[in-house]
Write a structure and sequence with these properties.
191 residues; alpha/beta; Rossmann fold; 6 helices; 18% strand
């Protein structure tokens, strides 16, 4: 039974990751082939941040060797983004995203200190994926301190997403309650 709920969490994370990748710049997408997104200004960078001591790595493929030592959420995100189901809209068909071509992941683990967390967010310019409430809170502090966050978006896997609803750049996702995904996504898109 536990394996089934982990798969649901991974699928849910993928839904939100897909929305975060595609939402700010989908209008700029150029399709090299049907249902495959391409961005005119290059691949998107997802900065995935967790508390821990694993070495940092850039993930540009989904090979087992590349994914060794990273959190399971990352594989779920890659699998989902590669499937042709993305966030469809009435105006656009579902698209898929290829790791290494449409996006790559800058995987970072750091100490649970304000300075280490702030350093892990430095130079992130597309998406910050926070893998805990503490990391999400630090990301909010980081983005709120920026003069302008531009197109930077934050997706936080948190215990309680409601405190993040008023942040127009943030989507709080409860890893414990994937059934709430449609409501949380609707709130994020509204802002």
């Amino acid at each position: 039974m536990a394996a089934k709920s982990v798969i649901k969490r991974r699928e849910f994370l993928g839904v939100l990751g897909g929305a975060a990748i595609g939402w700010p710049k989908m209008a700029e997408a150029q399709r090299a082939q049907p249902k495959r997104a391409r961005f005119a200004d290059g691949p998107r960078k997802i900065r995935a941040v967790a508390i821990g001591a694993s070495p940092s790595k850039d993930i540009k493929d989904a090979s087992p060797n590349t994914l060794k030592g990273v959190r399971p959420y990352i594989k779920g995100l890659i699998d989902w983004l590669g499937a042709p189901q993305g966030p469809p809209t009435p105006e656009q068909d579902a698209v898929s995203f290829a790791i290494g071509k449409d996006y790559f992941i800058e995987y970072r683990e750091c100490e649970d200190t304000a300075s280490a967390l702030q350093a892990s967010f430095a130079d992130a310019n597309d998406i910050i994926l926070c893998m805990s409430t503490g990391v999400a809170n630090a990301a909010v502090t980081y983005v709120d301190a920026l003069a302008s966050p531009g197109n930077l978006r934050v997706v936080g896997i948190v215990s309680e997403p409601k405190p993040y609803y008023d942040k127009t750049y943030m989507c709080g996702v409860s890893a414990k309650r994937p059934a709430h995904a449609p409501q949380q996504f609707a709130e994020f898109v509204k802002n």
